[in-house]
Amino acid sequence: MTSIDRTQAWQTIKQDDSHWDLIIVGGGITGVGILREAARLGLKSLLIEQQDFAWGTSSRSSKMVHGGLRYIAQGDLKLTKHSAQERERLIAEAPGLVARLGYIFPIRKGQIPGKLALNSLLKIYDKLAGIKSQQSFSAKQLLQRVPGLNPDKLKGASYYTDAVTDDSRLVLRVLHEALQEQTCAINYCRAESLLYEDNGQVNGITLHNMVNNELQNVRCKVVINATGAWVDYLREPVSHERTIRPLRGSHIIIPHALAPVEDALTLFHPRDKRAVFIFPWENSTVIGTTDLDHHHSLDLEPSISQDEVDYLLTLVQQQFPQSGINRNSIISTYAGVRPVISKDRHKAPSKEKRDHQVWIDQGMVSVSGGKLTTFRLIARDTINAAIALINRDSPTAAFSTTPGTTSNRKESIIARPSITPEHLKLADIKLAERLIGCYGNHAENIVLEAKQGELDRIANTRFCLAEIRWSARNESVVYLDDLLLRRSRIGLLLKDGAVQLLPQLEQICVKELGWDDAQWAEQVARYVALWQQHYYLPNAS
């Protein structure tokens, strides 16, 4: 793994403008997963992202690495099995970043489905994953496990396990591993337009460096469009069709003490009977998600609506009626746009399937759909399509995309670091585990380069200033929001977007990013305005 150096990346692009095997557009989990698989094959590959790495859906998910329980109900056992097996590998390979989490279905009188049907479904789910986690709780046991839960008509609960992660840090962990001698990645670099051969085949992109406003034509053997909800932007000019239905999912974050869950509660909303979660994440409690058509421009940060706030508050107030949870309890909000492939826009959003699809149009490979858990399988499907174009005379697949096959077992999804938590010699072993999970072997440098007091946890979060300093130096930070909303998540976890930390953050940013007083003031103003508009409550003052 290496640092992500934006300046060096742009110089490399200008020097090697016509010598790439692949140009990958999109810096979310799918794009960086493709770059990682390209690196395994020794393909000279460039990844570009028009905003920040993980800026889109990949930092705004429900943070769940799950096997797709609902796919069983839809009869798709194969997809469920593949997803569950990928989940188990991620739990095993990325401790400290991907963690097993209990999931509870509270069962109340008159609820459908009932305990018998749920338990049968969950046993199948466990069997497909090769684990045994399903169990039942009585009403008394559940109330002991979830203090403050509404006891009305409560009969008990069904229990199983999935997993939870920091989605943005997962993207960055995979990106670090993908950056090798023959690969390169740059953020804030937009694909302005496609370039074509004389025969009409796509063979490159005009890039726009959004930081210095430079343009650069870059040629390659295959362009891969892995832009998720944005995939039609590049694809429509060559395919003459639109396939993506952007669906918005929003969440609210409240103090953990108000809804002290240690497991994820799977609940049916009283308004529309949709499944919504109340779950623990980064020492807070998250409620989500909604599922609505997103009619705003995808180039603008998505935001939660007032109706969505009310919808989520209604659920958590119903489930924890004595906690006094209200609008003022909300620490922050976030909204993301899911790339759902759809042919029937009249179908209810929650009924849409979430599987991925790969298209080839005039020599460009596009991919969209799917879910976080199966990013490696999606990446390998996409790489296989690109390899077929590069080796037209002998289009042999580079990878098997079936979990459990020999070729899949040989290579990890996330490389196991060579250091252990004990190696870091921190008194806080949980912090050591999380640093290694999120940063791999770089965790050692984070500890060694920390200033006095910077390895203490920030307030009630699991983050520390030492990792923020290291990220500022090594992870292509352009804006303050990169640092507070994606490299770390403290902007989501602390009151007012962590503005109380600004004096300490200023010292770090001046030292590591070279910002002067005017630049710092500009960055703070940008961040505060962005947070108020897109990560807090609608019409917040």
Task: Summarize the entry for a quick read.
It contains 18 helices and 18 strands. With 541 residues, the chain is an alpha+beta fold.
What does this protein structure show overall?
The protein is of the alpha+beta class and 541 residues long. The chain has 18 helices and 18 strands. Strands 3, 4, 5, 6, 11, 12, 13, 14, 15 and 16 form a ten-stranded mixed sheet that branches. α13 (442-448) crosses α14. It starts with 5 loop residues before the first helix and ends in a 7-residue tail after the last helix.
Global Rg: 23 Å
Shape label: globular
Q: Give the tally of β-strands.
A: 18
What class do helices, strands and sheet pairing give? Answer: alpha+beta
Give the helix proportion (percent range). 25-40%
Feature tags:
8-stranded mixed beta sheet, 541 residues, single chain, 10-stranded mixed beta sheet, alpha+beta, 18 helices
Write the layout of secondary structure elements.
Blueprint (H helix, E strand, L loop, with lengths): L5 H10 L4 E6 L3 H12 L4 E4 L15 E2 L3 H5 L3 H17 L4 E11 L6 H15 L5 E4 H7 L8 E12 L1 H12 L4 E4 L2 E8 L5 E8 L5 E11 L5 H9 L4 E12 L8 E5 L6 E7 L2 E5 L3 E2 L12 H14 L12 E10 L15 E5 L2 E5 L6 H16 L15 H5 L18 H11 L2 H7 L16 H10 L5 H8 L2 H4 L8 H12 L3 H18 L7
Parallel strand pairs: 1-2, 1-10, 2-7, 4-12, 10-18
Antiparallel strand pairs: 3-6, 4-6, 5-6, 8-9, 9-10, 11-14, 11-15, 11-16, 12-13, 13-14, 17-18
Helix pairs in contact: 2-7, 2-10, 4-5, 12-13, 13-14, 14-17
